[in-house]
Amino acid sequence: SEREKKLFRQRFRLPYKEFVNLSRRIQQHEMFERWTKSDAVGKKAVPIELLLLGFFRYAGRGFTLDDLQEATAIDKETHRQFILKFIEYGSTCLWDNFVIKLDNADDANYNQQLFSAAGFPGCVGSVDGTHVLLLPCSDWAQNKHKGYKLNKTSRNYNVTCNHMREFIGCTKGFP
Predict the structure, then answer these.
(1) Which contacts (CB < 8 Å, 24+ apart) does range 129-137 have?
(2) Cβ(30)–Cβ(22) below 8 Å
(3) How far apart are CA 64 and CA 82, in angstroms?
């Protein structure tokens, strides 16, 4: 129903249809093979959909690995390993498929026209930052990864998108 779709988007920060497409995509990718096959004794791996939903709660709502373990009955170390692999997947495969590369004047002019039509002449993108919690952080790096805004260890990512909500850039994570 529409109410359930709205609730799903609110909880996980993406439409249910996109979640289904993404979970199918990662199940077919070699990076996630360990979560789609049975182990040496024939025990099935944990559902990759739960790990993916866990990632969205971790990144979008600030869940801890312990929260994820409690909510899914999947060990927090499994969640941690999946999150790291999904971040790698996002910064390579998803990046190549979904981030628009502005490498010529025509692209910049296109984005500038979008913003001009919205009343922001001269603008080519909107920028915002987000913090992704970094719970298992070494003691020596704790202070470097804590900011004035969020008194928890995290990495910061600055993302740029055009007026059509298309990603046109993202920084590497930094303290």
Answers:
(1) 129/156, 129/157, 129/158, 129/159, 130/156, 130/157, 130/159, 131/155, 131/156, 132/59, 132/156, 132/157, 132/173, 133/58, 133/62, 133/64, 135/64, 135/65, 136/65, 136/80
(2) no
(3) 14
Q: What is the residue whose two structure tokens read 């930094």?
A: 174
Q: What is the pTM of this model?
A: 0.65
Query: One-letter amino acid identity for 109?
Result: N
Instruction: Give me the tens of pLDDT residue by residue for the chain, a chain 175 residues long.
Output: 889 989 998 888 888 999 999 999 999 999 999 888 887 788 888 899 999 999 999 888 888 899 999 999 999 999 999 999 999 998 888 877 877 676 778 888 888 888 888 888 888 888 888 877 777 777 777 766 676 666 777 778 888 888 888 888 888 877 7
What are the φ/ψ torsions at residue 32 (nearest 5 degrees)? -110, 20
DSSP single-letter state for residue 162: -
